[in-house]
Design goal:
With 247 residues, the chain is α/β, with parallel strands linked by helices. It is built from six helices and nine strands. The chain folds into three domains: 72 residues, no CATH class; 32 residues, no CATH class; 110 residues, no CATH class. The strands form four sheets. A three-stranded antiparallel sheet has the order 3-4-5, with no helix packed on it. Strands 1-2 form a two-stranded parallel sheet. A two-stranded parallel ribbon has the order 6-9. It binds flavin-adenine dinucleotide. Flavin-adenine dinucleotide binds next to helix 6.
Length: 247
């Protein structure tokens, strides 16, 4: 059914959400009345995920009250309000935890000369600026995110130069069967049980470096449909381990 009123046809998802957030013309009540006309006492009512950017809980509660039913949202494609809300919640949580975010490319690193990283060096206005920490997590993505770099000569992890095993002959990086077991999607750094990247001899690259997400090798996210799952699981584990290092 159509959203009540006459929202402009562009950017509908956010316009619906903002209208419900502001509720300036009683949009919440009007939407509930609209749905009530076809609601035959079902205990649960699903709406497209447009129920507000800033006040989703309030809007769901208002609709639930008006319809006397549980109200839930059905996720949709981009632009995804639940994704936007999650990003805001993440930013708020970082702010509350006192996290300082620097959005610059990491171009180099410093060590103590004894196997520990001391700084990630970012590039800012042509200057190299070190950011010091007790612990580091490499989460720069895979071949698409540029966390792994490749050319005819080989595959490498460009930030910390961690070892990325791959066949010497680049014709062995793939098989001709497009849907076959392709080797290249599994390229990535090799980690120990604590998610610390290992070098070609199996030794830890840096005591206080963990890796998470697509930069970690051994999985084929497209074939396994495992991309976000691997990223979430390894991100949680790597972040937790890094946090325990610094306590
Ligand atoms: C077309 C496509 C469709 C996909 N669809 C799905 C799907 O439907 N479901 C699913 O589960 N997975 C999907 N995936 C996989 C999923 O996107 C990845 O598994 C996931 O994004 C990996 O997360 P990540 O954090 O490891 O890396 P990324 O999301 O790639 O993030 C890495 C970040 O690090 C940054 N970065 C890189 N180098 C540096 C540097 N030197 N300094 C600072 N920052 C740097 C990059 O800019 C990027 O922001 C898809 C991937 C692609 C390419």
């Amino acid at each position: 059914m159509a959203f009540p009123g006459d929202p402009r046809s562009d950017a509908k998802v956010t316009r619906y959400a903002h209208a419900l957030d502001g509720d300036a013309d009683g949009e919440r009540e009007r939407l509930a009345a609209h749905v009530a006309r076809v609601h035959e006492g079902e205990p649960r009512v699903g709406f497209p995920a447009v129920l507000g950017e800033d006040h989703p809980a309030e809007i769901r509660a208002a609709l639930a009250d008006a319809l006397d039913a549980d109200v839930f949202e059905v996720p949709m494609g981009p632009p995804s309000l639940p994704g936007i809300r999650l990003e805001y919640a993440y930013r708020d949580a970082l702010g509350e935890a006192g996290v300082h975010v620097v959005r610059r490319p990491v171009v180099d690193y410093e060590t103590d000369g004894d196997g520990r990283l001391t700084a990630a060096v970012v590039e800012r206005n042509g200057q190299h600026v070190p950011h010091y920490a007790d612990s580091f997590v490499l989460a720069t993505g895979g071949l698409v995110g540029k966390g792994l770099d490749s050319d005819r000569g080989g595959v490498r992890e460009p930030v910390f130069d961690c070892h990325v095993p791959h066949p010497a002959d680049r014709y062995d990086w793939f098989v001709d069967d497009v849907y076959g077991e392709q080797p290249y999607p599994r390229f990535g750094v090799v980690v120990d049980d604590d998610l610390r990247p290992r070098d070609a001899d199996g030794r830890i690259e840096f005591e206080n470096l963990r890796a998470a997400g697509s930069v970690v090798g051994g999985h084929d996210f497209a074939a396994e449909c495992s991309g976000t799952g691997v990223s979430l699981a390894t991100g949680d584990a790597a972040g937790t381990a890094a946090g325990s290092d610094t306590q």
